[in-house]
């Protein structure tokens, strides 16, 4: 897929750039086998992000609070969680898109 095609694509309002790129990518995967590969990759990345978030949550909730996080650490954790949510939604969109194309 060319950069020109990405630039010409009308983005969905209210959606992240990640969502728009993944949506465009899903529409341009030429074969069912390639869509299956992309779908499997999306599931693996989504599951890894969910696992990482769960681990982070457990570590933070079970910590003895002996470590005080500085502002940078808290911002980094917050940015990671926000990015993870956007990426997980993007992976779900990609999985759904691949499934819909398979039905066609």
Give the % helix. Answer: over 70%
Q: What is the arithmetic mean of pLDDT?
A: 76
Identify low-pLDDT runs: 1-12
Class based on secondary structure composition and strand pairing: mainly alpha
Largest sheet, strands/sense/barrel = none
- Provide the number of structural domains: 1
Strand content: under 5%
Order of SSEs, N→C? HHHH
Shape designation:
elongated
List the total number of helices. Answer: 4
Structural overview:
The chain is an all-alpha fold and 104 residues long. The model is unreliable at 1-12 (pLDDT under 50). The protein has helices spanning 3-8, 17-27, 32-62, 71-103. It is built from 4 helices and no strands. α3 packs antiparallel against α4 (71-103). It has one domain (3-103).
Overview in brief:
This protein is an all-alpha fold. It is built from 4 helices and no strands.
Element layout with pairings:
Blueprint: H1 3-8, H2 17-27, H3 32-62, H4 71-103
Essential attributes:
mainly alpha, 104 residues, disordered N terminus
């Amino acid at each position: 897929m060319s950069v020109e095609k990405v630039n010409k694509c009308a983005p969905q309002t209210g959606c992240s750039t990640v969502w728009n790129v993944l949506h465009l990518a899903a529409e341009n995967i030429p074969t069912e086998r390639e869509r299956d590969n992309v779908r499997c990759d999306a599931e693996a990345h989504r599951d890894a992000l969910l696992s990482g978030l769960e681990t982070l949550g457990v570590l933070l909730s079970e910590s003895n609070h002996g470590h005080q996080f500085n502002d940078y650490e808290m911002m980094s954790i917050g940015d990671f969680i926000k990015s993870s949510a956007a990426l997980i939604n993007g992976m779900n969109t990609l999985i759904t898109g691949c499934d819909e194309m398979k039905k066609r």
